[in-house]
Amino acid sequence: MTRGRFITLEGGEGAGKTTQIRLLADALVKWEKRVVVTREPGGSPGAEEIRGLLVAGETGRWGPVTEALLHTAARRDHLERTVWPALEAGHWVICDRFFDSTMAYQGYGLGLGRELVATLQTAALGDFRPDLTLILDLPVEDGLARAAARRGGEDRYERMDVAFHHRLREGFLDIAAREPERCAVVDAGHPVEAVQAAILDHVTRRLGAS
Ligand code: Z5A
């Protein structure tokens, strides 16, 4: 059995990950891949329980270290119970956010720094990495407006101040610049179809799917 591929989508609020994941999954199914779509925080029963602790409540509900630990604990459960078995079974796994979100949100956004977050990721993941990470990049104000329009409300992270969201965006771009082999930055400011075309281009060229 050939191992599947692991594709992660990252970006700030309202970047369009959910929209693009649906379209990417459809394309991969047409190309006769077996596809699993999942998300973080969450993606397994235990991790979904932890998600409830993370996305609801006051912005200052958790200290930054506790918050990073909760995301990391959820991630380990998600990997063991959902992602690794699916990859072993030959599925292409598409994940809405992964460890780059911990680096961007908790490392850059909340100021924990790269070193501590990298240590946590090594403890939870070992050497495991996505085959491809698509970072959807969008000006902060545009992303927040999209997210607010979609939900009609705000979750805990959307209520962080605008400076936080700027640190987040710079964080994602820095991650991409440090790991160009794994990461591709996609301009998410274009219409849905154009963003989709750019994503399919990366998936085809980098992973050989079509
Ligand atoms: N988090 C963390 O802090 N640390 C971690 O380690 C992890 C996560 C893993 C999970 O939230 C939160 O957890 C997240 C980070 C934090 N912060 N927040 N919020 P979530 O999973 O509930 O939400 P999200 O991942 O942030 O999703 P989102 O940003 O709100 O949305 P999206 O999936 O990127 O976008 P969308 O739903 O596809 O699109 C948003 C709207 O824009 C919608 O109305 C679309 O129709 C529209 N849209 C999409 N594409 C376009 C284009 N191209 N043009 C115009 N309009 C568009």
UniProtKB/TrEMBL annotation:
Keywords assigned by UniProt, alphabetized: ATP-binding, Kinase, Nucleotide biosynthesis, Nucleotide-binding, Transferase
Top-level EC class as recorded in UniProt: transferase
Gene3D superfamilies: P-loop containing nucleotide triphosphate hydrolases (3.40.50.300)
Keyword DNA-binding applies: no
Ranges for domain Thymidylate kinase-like: 9-199
Residues that bind ATP: 11-18
CDD domains per record: TMPK
Molecular-function GO terms, alphabetical: dTMP kinase activity
Catalysed conversion reaction: dTMP + ATP = dTDP + ADP
Listed EC numbers: 2.7.4.9
Keyword field contains Kinase: yes
Family per record: Belongs to the thymidylate kinase family.
NCBIfam families, sorted: DTMP_kinase
HAMAP family, A to Z: Thymidylate_kinase
PANTHER family: THYMIDYLATE KINASE, UMP-CMP KINASE 2, MITOCHONDRIAL
General function of this protein: Phosphorylation of dTMP to form dTDP in both de novo and salvage pathways of dTTP synthesis.
Protein's name according to its UniProt entry: Thymidylate kinase
Organism of provenance: Azospirillum aestuarii
Upper lineage: Bacteria, Pseudomonadati, Pseudomonadota, Alphaproteobacteria, Rhodospirillales
Gene: tmk
